[in-house]
Backbone:
């Protein structure tokens, strides 16, 4: 068994266990940390498959935006983040463990790079990005467009979820705000002038 195969099994097992943790843990903070580890492990697997563009895109887009995703979930579920901030120290060991696993994965990739034999030159002179573009827009155009349609439907479906009425939550009605008549908001009152001593002459 080669070192590259050992790294592949290690990355795959870590990704599977982290993905299982995302859907099994109850705490949203731990779930977000497991999600970061899942994305990072899959990026390592894609690097082993020489899909560098996909790996870098996964790290930059998903790992970089996972905290935005976490905040979005917190806002949607009305999770009280005050106790989470107070218990920050208890999440520190989990974060350290996940950071240590990511460090081990990076060191394994560096070791693979040091042991790797220089690849043969590509006769077609085609980079990984060009190959991916040709595969998406020439060979798999229909599945690519179907995936885009599914994402669009999901985006539209997310709008009614955010507009639902909840008790005890202040909300705005843009339609009513636009239809407001300024005359209803301002009332002119005519009063007689008065002095400190009484009514003015």
Residues:
């Amino acid at each position: 068994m080669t070192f590259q195969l050992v790294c592949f099994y290690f990355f795959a097992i870590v990704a599977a266990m982290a993905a299982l943790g995302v859907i099994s843990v109850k705490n949203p903070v731990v779930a977000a940390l497991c999600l970061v580890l899942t994305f990072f492990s899959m990026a390592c697997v894609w690097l082993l498959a020489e899909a560098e563009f996909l790996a870098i895109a996964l790290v930059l887009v998903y790992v970089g935006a996972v905290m935005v995703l976490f905040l979005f979930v917190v806002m949607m579920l009305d999770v009280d983040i005050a106790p989470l901030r107070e218990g920050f120290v208890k999440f520190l060991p989990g974060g350290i463990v996940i950071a240590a696993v990511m460090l081990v994965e990076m060191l394994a990739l560096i070791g693979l790079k040091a042991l790797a034999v220089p690849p043969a030159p590509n006769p077609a002179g085609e980079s990984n990005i060009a190959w991916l573009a040709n595969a998406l827009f020439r060979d798999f155009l229909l599945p690519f467009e179907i995936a885009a349609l599914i994402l669009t439907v999901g985006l539209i479906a997310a709008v009614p979820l955010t507009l639902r009425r909840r008790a005890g939550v202040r909300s705005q009605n843009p339609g009513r705000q636009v239809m407001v008549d300024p005359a209803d908001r301002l009332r002119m009152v005519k009063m007689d002038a008065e002095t400190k001593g009484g009514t003015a002459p």
